[in-house]
Amino acid sequence: MRQSPVNRILILLKTEGPQLAAAIGDALGISGEAARQQLAKMAEEGLVEAMTVAAKGRGRPSQLWHLTAEGNRHFPDGHAELTAALLTTVVEQLGPAALDTVIAARESETLQRYRDELAGKPDLAARVEGLAAMRSREGYMADSWQEEDGSLMLVENHCPICAAAAVCAGFCRSEIETFRSVLSANVERSEHILLGARRCAYRITPR
User: Fold this and answer.
1) Residue from 76, 138, 90 nearest 113 by CA
2) Is the dihedral of CA 28, 31, 34, 35 positive or negative?
3) Which residues contact 177 (CB under 8 A, 6 or more apart)?
4) Residues in the chain with pLDDT < 50?
């Protein structure tokens, strides 16, 4: 099914970060002017906004377009408000230990499911690629690649459980431990959505 220009721009900005109108036009196969017109309409709807970036040297300043909070709300949020309210209630009524039990159970189930799907992939790069595919199916808009130094990157451009993670950091801690276990590798988070980054990024190296 063909995506509308608006959806294609939203996905592009979500996965690639702030972009020039000309670059957006290239990605969509349209002129930079047509892209600017589309972006202007989206800005009126509150989906995107431009930030002016000073040029190097004597060049003219550039405008980089990025998603607003409203634009980000077009991506799955895992029933954010309900999730956050339920977690808060669990802590208030049953105590922090009950929430720890919930997180541990989720981690155990997730770990087993990931291990089953990655079975037979002894190569770390293949496991990271398989993990990225699974995370994308779960709504994380994930990607992976190898850096020049040989390390591997796993990047998640969206967090469908962001509301839950904001209420309880244990979810983020649990996820990185799951990655370390299922990949049998060193995993360090280098970018974190909850700390203001555009995405979550993990650097992965052999043990």
Assistant:
1) 138
2) positive
3) 107
4) 1
Gyration radius of the chain's alpha carbons: 20
pTM of the predicted model as reported, rounded to 2 decimal places: 0.68
User: Per-residue pLDDT tens for 118-171?
Assistant: 998 989 999 999 999 999 888 888 999 999 999 999 999 888 777 666 666 778
SS3 39: helix
d(CA 41, CA 134): 35
Residue 98, strand partner residues: none
| Whether 162 contacts 193, CB under 8 Å | yes
CA 201 – CA 75 distance, rounded (Å) = 18
- Torsion-angle region of residue 78: left (phi > 0), alpha (psi -120 to 50) or beta? left
